[in-house]
Specification:
54% of the residues lie in helices and 10% in strands. The chain has 799 residues and is an alpha/beta fold.
Length: 799
């Protein structure tokens, strides 16, 4: 492929580069300390330079100041996109050795957003563990179970191992799905589809948990009012409802602002937990026996059935784990690990030991050991602070739900809800209004319906433990099928799976009948809608690939009988846009595959008998096939009418015409005088300058392909403004009168095929998909065009 000479572009940054090089696909931005030769290897090929920073933190270092434009040029093989190279996106870490101030900031925020759930579990775990005053051995055994759950499940399994499985910095079930269904996975296609469905189930369970966590945390805090004044019991639910509403209303401010505000509050909370725990431990140091793992094993052996049932309640001490993993994309693994091992784990451990010491000393205090541990004079201040901390505790699962839905939208598992980026420097900080208000409605229903903490905890553990089992299984598959590690490592990690299955059995035995069914119903309802969208998209894609014809854009001038050439608007025309390279374009790969399948069908005309004939016969056959292909696509001989004006067709490909255009030609036998194919791309940057927004290719006379690039914070996209910018920068003959420009958008209608014995299996999900498709037709809501100038080209897909 011929290379093109491109000058280095201007780019803004915050501090000195210090020898680092920032790579944005095909443009290398560097500082004066880096020599130009670093952009080449010995064979004069393009070399990718990246920093060690993760993708979502990279932009924070390059916001202000100017990197100087160099006079020399560098050789590239692609067009200058403004999308970050994948090589800089895979680590998903914020290292203290690279950017210490950023590491400190993310650590403080992670304490405020992620660990509130685990940090407020001491409010209710021991309270719900025993029904009557326990003996000393029972207290030590139960505390030992809690301690070693924190060590084995949280510290080892999640903080060390699970956080290693990030997909471009993101965590959660869909991150595992991306690793297992990606190009490096060894799984079969059918297995990948099955994995996708399992991940959808896990995500639905986790989002359902988002409705239970705020109810559990906030109710448990307000139940301290009963100790202060028993007559205030009727106000517990009312005050909880008010706080829940306020919590969800502030989400639109964004997790970045919330995290920096919540972080110091939660740091003080963990210091308070540790202080109370140390004070109570001094009264009964015998509680340190709980650090011996044998005490936990001995307790389970001794109590048998009772100990097995209590496992479900002990599990509440580690709730919030899946939110910890789902929020990986917000903060990075190193801030999360440091927060846990340096602050959260020691504080929670000491508080549980302190509560155990108190119960050994005063067994009757089992009714509410946390508030009984607090000195009487500090009860009201601690109550107020616990309410604030419990409110913050709900933040982890809420932000985790936003992240999950955003990943689901990107992978085609969810309706394309509006996703608002709340940070201009960190791409992972998002807010999804539809999910926020959905969780608010569910949380209010659960709080008002269950009324007390004891009832909600029965439903609470089912969802979290189910997700934990799925995560463990998927992680084991990643070890073997994606990372290609030996089987003995998979078997070693199976130790955690045994623990998960044992816990899951205990929870299902004790909690489903007494309230866990609510969580299952919530998750199942979410799964029906998500699976319907996933399955419907697959059916629609298969239909379009079989029945909707597309052709190469470069062949279009010949088909229309026009002069054919393919070039980009280059520097000679005062433009820095060069020829695009589509070799790595995922959208075009599907089109390439479709055309290959068509060619295979044509190749079947040559059977085994023809192979033995003379070469001339084969050449004649190939020529006839070529003539047939030319006649099929020769639009010039069909007397098409050239309509006056500009026609803009939205497309997802850089190589092929959209099926909307082909349908329009087949129905009207006309095409616009000026024909534009417009593709929208998004960069991992907050904003794109207008002089770098467009990549323009021209085919023949008045046929253009425009790729318009937007930053993730640019929410309102005017289609006319894109064309007007192309007219200003590249002199495309577009009128300034918007009324003379017509935008052609796709509109897909789903017809459910009821024929065949398997029709009833797909009937319900496809009907749901057809309804969702009417509500969310696929054109982003932020695409703005004048209704009078917009034509929707419909297609009836028989699925």
């Amino acid at each position: 492929m011929a290379s093109n000479e491109l000058p280095l572009q201007d780019f803004k940054r915050e501090d000195t580069c210090n020898g680092h090089t920032v790579h944005f696909d095909d443009i290398i931005y560097t500082d004066d300390d880096c020599s130009p030769s670093e952009a080449m290897d010995d064979n004069n090929r393009h070399v990718v330079f990246t920093t060690d920073e993760p993708n979502r933190q990279l932009n924070t270092r390059y916001k202000s100041g100017i990197l100087k434009r160099r006079e020399n040029t560098i050789t590239t093989v692609d067009a200058p996109r403004i999308i970050l190279s994948d090589e800089g996106l895979k680590t998903g870490r914020v290292s203290p050795f690279i950017n210490f101030p950023l590491f400190v900031s993310m650590t403080i925020r992670s304490v405020g957003v992620i660990f509130g759930d685990i940090g407020t579990s001491p409010l209710y775990v021991l309270k719900t563990l025993f029904d009557s005053p326990p003996e000393e051995d029972a207290v030590i055994g139960a505390i030992s179970l809690i301690v070693w759950s924190l060590i084995v499940v949280v510290s080892l399994k999640y903080a060390i191992f699970i956080l290693m499985a990030d997909n471009r910095g993101e965590g959660g079930p869909f991150a595992l799905c991306g690793l297992l269904t990606g190009p490096t996975s060894r799984l079969h296609y059918r297995t990948k589809q099955f994995v996708s469905i399992i991940c959808i189930i896990a995500a639905c369970l986790l989002i359902g948990d988002g409705a239970l966590t705020p109810a559990v945390s906030i109710l448990s805090a307000f139940e301290g009012l009963v100790i202060v004044k028993p007559s205030l019991e009727s106000w517990v639910v009312r005050l909880s409802v008010i706080v829940i509403i306020l919590l969800f209303l502030i989400q639109r401010w964004g997790s970045s602002r919330i995290g920096i505000f919540f972080g110091p509050i939660m740091i003080l909370w963990f210091i308070l937990l540790a202080t109370i725990g140390i004070w109570r431990i001094t009264y009964k140091p015998v509680i340190f026996k709980a650090l011996n793992p044998w005490e936990a094993m001995h307790y389970l052996i001794k109590t048998k059935k009772q100990g097995f049932y209590q496992i479900g309640t002990v599990f509440l001490s580690v709730t919030g784990l899946e939110a910890l993993y789902a929020d990986l994309g917000y903060f990075g693994r190193w801030p999360i690990r440091f927060s846990w091992f340096a602050l959260v784990f020691p504080a929670v451990l000491l508080n549980y030991l302190g509560q155990g010491a108190l119960i050994i000393l005063y067994p009757k205090f089992i009714d509410n050991p946390f508030y009984r541990s607090v000195p009487h004079w500090a009860l009201i201040p601690v109550l107020v602070y616990s309410v604030i901390s419990s409110t913050i505790a709900s933040q982890a699962i809420i932000t985790g739900s936003f992240s999950l839905v955003s990943q689901a939208i990107a992978m085609g598992f969810c309706v394309a809800f509006t996703v608002i980026h709340t940070s201009r420097s960190i791409i992972g900080h998002i807010y999804v209004p539809a999910v926020n208000y959905f969780l608010l409605a569910l949380t209010l229903a659960v709080t008002i319906g269950f009324q007390t903490i004891d009832r909600i905890t029965d439903a609470y553990g089912v969802t979290v433990c189910s997700v934990m089992v799925i995560t463990t299984i998927l992680y084991m598959m990643v070890i073997r099928c994606t990372w290609l590690k030996p089987m003995w490592l998979v078997a070693l990690f199976g130790f955690f799976l045994i623990i998960d299955l044992y816990t899951f059995a205990a929870i299902c035995t004790t909690k489903i009948a007494s309230g866990g069914w609510v969580a299952i119903i919530i998750a199942f309802s979410l799964f029906i809608f998500s699976f319907s969208w996933f399955y419907g998209n697959i059916r629609l894609s298969n239909y379009l690939s079989k029945h909707c014809k597309t052709n190469l854009i470069e062949d279009l001038p010949n088909r229309l009988g026009l002069t054919s050439f393919d070039r980009s608007l280059n520097d000679d025309e005062n433009s820095n846009i060069s020829v695009t390279n589509d070799d790595n374009d995922d959208d075009d790969d599907d089109d390439d595959q479709k055309h290959k399948e068509r060619n295979k069908k044509r190749a079947k005309l040559i059977n085994n008998e023809q192979k033995n004939e003379s070469i001339s016969v084969v050449e004649n056959l190939q020529a006839s096939v070529l003539i047939e292909n030319v006649e099929e696509n020769n639009l010039y001989k069909k007397n098409n009418v050239i309509a006056r004006g500009v026609g803009c067709f939205l497309t997802t490909s850089k190589k092929y015409t959209p099926y909307v255009f082909e349908n329009f030609l087949n129905r009207t036998h006309a095409y616009p005088e000026i024909l534009i194919f417009l593709k929208i791309e998004y960069a991992r940057m907050p904003n794109i300058d207008d002089d770098q927004r467009l990549i323009v290719r021209t085919f023949g006379n008045n046929i253009y392909h425009i790729t318009s690039i937007f930053g993730y914070t640019e929410t309102n996209i005017s289609l006319f403004n894109i064309l007007h910018l192309a007219q200003q920068l590249y002199h495309i003959p577009i009128t300034n009168d918007e009324s003379e420009i017509t935008f052609f958008l796709p509109y897909q209608t789903i017809h459910v095929n009821k024929h065949g014995w398997r029709a009833w299996l797909r009937l319900i999900p496809l009907y749901i998909y057809s309804i969702l498709k009417q509500l969310y037709p696929g054109i982003p809501l932020n695409f703005k065009s004048v209704p009078e100038n917009t034509i929707h080209i419909g297609i009836l897909a028989d699925c």
